[in-house]
Each structure stands twice: as C-alpha cells, then as structure tokens.
Write a structure and sequence with these properties.
The chain is mainly α. Helices cover about 75% and strands about 0% of the residues.
Length: about 475
C-alpha cells in the first residue's frame, strides 16, 4: 500500500470522527464532557464498548498470540464473562445509588480522602500504561509497514496520533466518544470478518472445513488442564480473567464512565451483561483469524517480521494484509480496522484520565464555575502530552507480545483497587485512612516478589494472571491490619 493511499484513508477516517464531534460537541459543558447528561441509549453504549474493550491489542496481538499459546486465551475470556456478571449485579447498582461521576468517590465516602486519592492514582497509572500500550501497537504498525519508507520519525507518528484524538474529544468528551465508538466498532468487526473470508478463500477452505482441518487443530487447543504449574492452566486463566474484568472494567473509570452515561441502573446492567456475552464470540473469531494467519504463513512461506533482532508475532497480521498481494481491498480493510480498534479505546482513555484527575484530585466541582471548563481543557492537554511521552518510551523498552505485557502490568496496577473496593463492599470495618497509600504500595511490592520467586519457592509453580487476586488479597489483609479498633 502506498503511503499516499494510507494518508488518504486516515484523513477520510478522521474527517468522519471530527464530523461526529462537531454534531455532538455543540454543548461543551463539564456535565456533558463527564457524563453525557446521562442520556445515552444503553444499546449504543454496549455496541460501542465492544470496540473499546477489544482495542488494537486484540485486533493484532491476540491473533499473533496463537502460535505460542494456541486458543488458551478463551479461558481468560470465559473468566471475563463471569467478571461482567459481578460488575452488573454488584458494582453498577452501587455507582448509580451513590450518583457519582468518578467511581473513586466511593472510596472517599467509605474510607476517606487518602483512600480516594490512592484509588484514583492507581487508576491513572493503570490507564496511562494501558492506553499507551494500545496506541504503541498502532503506531508501530504504521511505522514499520508504511511511514519508515517516508523516513517519518516514530516520535512524529505518535504526536500526530494523539493530536488527532485530542481534536475530536476536547469539546464534549464522553458524549462524543459514545457515538464515535459505535462507528469504530462497526469498522473493526467488518475488518476482521472480511479478513477471515478473504484468507479462507485463499486457502481454499470454507469456515466449517477449516474448523475440521488438521491445520486448525494445530492451533486450537483451548483448555489446559495437564499441569497446574503451567501459566495457562485453566483454573488460573478463568479466575485471572474474572478478576481482570472486575478490575479493568468494573473498577476502571474509563469503562465505567461510559456505563454511567446510561439513563438508569437497569439499562447499564443490560449493557454490561450483553457486552460480556458478545465478547465470547468475538474473541473466538480473533483467535480463529490467528490460526488462519499462521496456516497461511506456513503454506506460502511468509516470514514473521523481525524488528531489531526480535521476532514480532504481533506484526504477522499486518504483514499478510499489506505485503502478500492479497489485494488492495484487504489492505484498506485492515488499515481501517486497525485505526478503529486503536482509537476506540485511546479516545475514551484520554477522556477518563481528564475526568478522574479533574474530579478526584482537583475537586473541580468545588471550583468557581466560570473556571471549571478552562481547567478541564488544560488537564486534557496535559494528559495528551503524558501519553505521547510514555508511548515513545515503549519504543525502547517493550520486547514482549503486547497483549501479554498489557495483562501482566494490569495484575500489578489494578490489585490495590481490587483490594480497596472488596474491603469496602464486604466488610463494615473502618480503617486508618492515612496509611492506605502505604498498604497499596507494599501490596504491589509483595506481589512482584512472590511472582518473581514463585518458581523457586513452590517447586516450579508459575503464577498466571490470577496473581491479580493475590495482589488484591495483600491489599485486603493490609487494610484489615490498619483497621480502627
């Protein structure tokens, strides 16, 4: 694909997003930016959240993960569904009952100011890292396959990508994102389905024939029950997935801010439940695509891209879509799907970071009304710059498959949130609020040490993503130790 064609596709795509922003951005009040006046139809929120939940990481990295982990990711996805049930039945009613804008306001009401700010700080760290992971993957693909031929610096690619997000979110924030995510989800799902159809045809398979083939069986093992020490062991994965969903969705301002724009608690619950159900099938399609990609690569001797001496399975999908003469249609479809996947999560991340910092740290609702909008816009710019700096740093630091790196980081940063909310919901104890920050930090430290040395200490046992539960448990125990007597 020529760089000029790519630039044209991106230009047209962002013209659509900015058009939606213009239509939805006539009211740029803080109430609209933070809560969309709580008038969003639940089914629109649910459909848009499919794209935000999947993101560019799922679009590229999950298919690329199939070679090393087969379909074991489905174990985690089943855990996600259980987590969504907990969010729907426990957390959604709580947030609506308290009528809060930032979900970390619950911690202030339950424990105090230090707990509130500690929870919000861990969210900020988590969301900055996750949003940066996702945008890093998108910009890396553009850089490797197209922009390097123009000698465009990676740093300029990152700056431009974040600037485009800022342009269509700076006025109406979450209200705009509810509608742009709907468009982006459609493009992403269209792209993956179209790619599956094109590659099946190239391999001379029907969907059912490939499911029955030996090529599919080489990659499709889903449940791993042989060795409890294995990171992919089924119970570890399901429990890990469940608590990742609770933490990364239910205790995450980014995802919950969209849910809280629904008119009522019941509508928000419908949104979460339907999302959890649909994601099972959609993630299967992405794994199915991964099996197709590696089968295609083996049959036609496609080499997995190597960057700075490191094999990057994340880049196999774009390599086949853009460089294997499968037609300009597949190349265009892939680029549109990739942009949609990357920006459907990054735009809401920028908005939620702005919301949380404005409310949880600046107490913007207590500031003079004439200054509130100006402060929010400045915070929005600051977090745009932060994302740019973190993404650029990943270029020099990140070696692993992105989906694996993202989930691993999440087990550390979301653990204290899981412990704080669990302690608040399942006990009636009060704590010495001023020590909560120390408990949270020590929980992360203890979790890291346990995870690092588990193979030595526990006869070869390796923690999977269920280490998030352990992290939350450390926080829970720490809070119990600082309880008021």
């Amino acid at each position: 694909m020529s760089p000029l064609l790519l630039a044209s596709i991106i230009g047209i795509y962002f013209f659509l997003l900015i058009g939606i922003s213009y239509i939805t951005g006539k009211d740029d009040s803080n109430n609209v930016f933070f809560k969309a006046n709580r008038k969003s139809p639940w089914y629109v929120v649910a459909f848009g959240m499919i794209g935000a939940s999947l993101s560019g990481v799922t679009f590229i990295s999950v298919p690329g993960w199939v070679q090393s982990t087969q379909f074991s990711y489905m174990q985690i996805v089943l855990g996600y569904f259980l987590g969504y049930l907990v969010i729907s039945l426990v957390l959604i009613p709580l947030y609506y009952r308290l009528n809060i804008t930032s979900i970390y306001e619950y911690l202030k009401q339950r424990f105090g100011t230090t707990s509130h700010k500690t929870g919000a700080l861990f969210f900020l760290i988590s969301r900055i890292l996750i949003a940066s992971f996702r945008l890093f993957l998108f910009t890396s693909v553009l850089q490797y396959f197209v922009l390097d031929t123009w000698n465009v610096p990676f740093e300029l690619t990152v700056i431009t990508s974040v600037l485009l997000i800022w342009l269509y979110t700076f006025r109406s924030g979450i209200k705009t994102i509810i509608w742009t995510d709907t468009l982006q989800t459609f493009f992403m799902l269209f792209a993956v389905v179209a790619t599956v159809i094109i590659i099946l045809k190239k391999l001379d398979f029907t969907f059912v024939e490939f499911l029955q083939s030996q090529e599919y069986k080489n990659y499709s093992k889903t449940f791993f029950a042989e060795d409890i020490n294995d990171k992919k062991y089924w119970l570890k994965s399901i429990l890990g997935g469940m608590f990742i969903a609770i933490a990364m969705t239910g205790l995450d301002q980014d995802n919950m801010q969209k849910n809280l724009t629904c008119k009522t608690s019941k509508e928000s619950q419908k949104n979460v439940f339907s999302l959890g159900f649909v994601l099972i099938f959609i993630n299967f399609i992405f794994l199915f695509l991964g099996a197709l990609l590696f089968t295609y690569a083996a049959k036609f001797d496609v080499e997995i891209p190597v960057v700075e001496g490191k094999i990057k399975t994340d880049l196999l999908f774009p390599e086949i879509a853009l460089n294997q003469n499968l037609g300009i249609g597949l190349g265009i479809t892939f680029i549109i799907g990739l942009i949609a996947a990357a920006y459907s999560s990054a735009d809401s991340a920028l908005t939620s970071l702005t919301t949380s910092f404005s409310i949880d740290f600046l107490n913007i609702e207590n500031i003079k009304k004439s200054k509130q909008k100006s402060i929010r816009k400045k915070v929005h710019i600051v977090f745009s710059v932060v994302l740019i700096l973190v993404i650029i740093s990943f270029q020099y630091k990140l070696d692993e498959n992105v989906i694996g790196s993202l989930l691993q980081v999440s087990t550390y940063t979301y653990g204290p949130l899981l412990g704080l909310f669990s302690f608040g919901l399942f006990t009636k104890l009060q704590i010495k609020d001023k020590w909560v920050w120390l408990v949270a930090i020590l929980s992360v430290v203890f979790t890291y040490i346990l995870n690092h040395y588990s193979k030595i200490w526990f006869n070869g046992f390796v923690f999977g993503y269920e280490i998030l539960m352990i992290n939350g448990l450390f926080t829970f125990i720490g809070l119990f130790l600082i309880r008021k007597k």
